[in-house]
Automatic annotation (TrEMBL):
Keywords: ATP-binding, Ligase, Magnesium, Metal-binding, Nucleotide-binding. It comes from Alcaligenes pakistanensis. This is 5-formyltetrahydrofolate cyclo-ligase. The lineage of its organism: Bacteria, Pseudomonadati, Pseudomonadota, Betaproteobacteria, Burkholderiales. Gene3D superfamilies: NagB/RpiA/CoA transferase-like. Pfam families: 5-FTHF_cyc-lig. The keyword Ligase applies. It catalyses: (6S)-5-formyl-5,6,7,8-tetrahydrofolate + ATP = (6R)-5,10-methenyltetrahydrofolate + ADP + phosphate. One of its GO terms (biological process) is folic acid-containing compound biosynthetic process. Belongs to the 5-formyltetrahydrofolate cyclo-ligase family.
Length: 209
């Protein structure tokens, strides 16, 4: 049964990567802009409400550096740091089969090639995020995520929960990654996301902080 689930997930990954690669550049550029706009509005609205209620606001966001035609959030990350005074951190793979570390990033941070060819900050300052933006290849309307098969984010989200650290997870995906109607079965270790945002809007309703 486990082998069948893994085989099905691998086939879905291949198909979704092909769909993603087939999108026109003008559509992905526009789509990424829409994602950034919705994220900015969502966070600003929630922070304003929490401030009015005298409650603690989220201050630290774990984002990701785009690769393999993922939505590009970088202009928003700059805006969050420079205009909103928020802390932004990026994932770093320290060990295979271990949770990710989130290290501080600013627009002035030097970047270097990490594992899998992903750009990572040279910073060594680790952070505990209040919000985790998760690169998502495929998703269900219930918040199940199909990633790249390495399990880093599943281990990371599970570790944060084990530490009793309060956070909100949001999958960032292209709408073509919708697994509705597909025979996708999440694995037992898969961590369900609190929400999923795509270029077509919130595929899983926006969470209230």
């Amino acid at each position: 049964m486990i082998q069948n689930v893994e085989h099905n997930a691998a086939a879905l990954r291949t198909r979704l990567k092909d769909l993603r690669a087939g999108q026109a550049a003008i559509d992905t550029n526009r789509g990424a802009l829409l994602i950034r706009g919705r994220l900015f509005t969502w966070l600003a609205t929630n922070r304003s409400r929490l401030r009015e209620q005298g409650r603690a606001e989220p201050t630290t966001i774990a984002a990701f550096w785009p690769m393999d035609k993922e939505p590009d959030l970088r202009p928003l990350l700059v805006q969050w740091v420079e205009e909103e005074g928020l802390n932004v951190c990026l994932p770093v793979v320290s060990e295979t089969d271990a949770p990710l570390r989130f290290v501080e990033w600013t627009p002035d941070t030097e970047m270097e090639k990490g594992r899998y060819g992903i750009e990572i900050p040279t910073s060594t300052k680790t952070m505990q995020p209040d919000i985790v933006l998760v690169p998502t290849l495929g998703y269900t309307r219930q918040g199940d995520r199909l990633g790249y098969g390495k399990g880093y984010y599943d281990r990371t989200l599970a570790a944060l929960k084990e530490q009793n650290h309060a956070f909100t997870s949001i999958g960032i995906a292209w709408a073509v990654g919708d697994l509705s109607g597909q025979s996708y079965q999440p694995a037992e270790h898969d961590q369900r996301l609190d929400s999923v945002l795509t270029d077509k809007g919130w595929a899983v309703p926006a969470p209230e902080l």
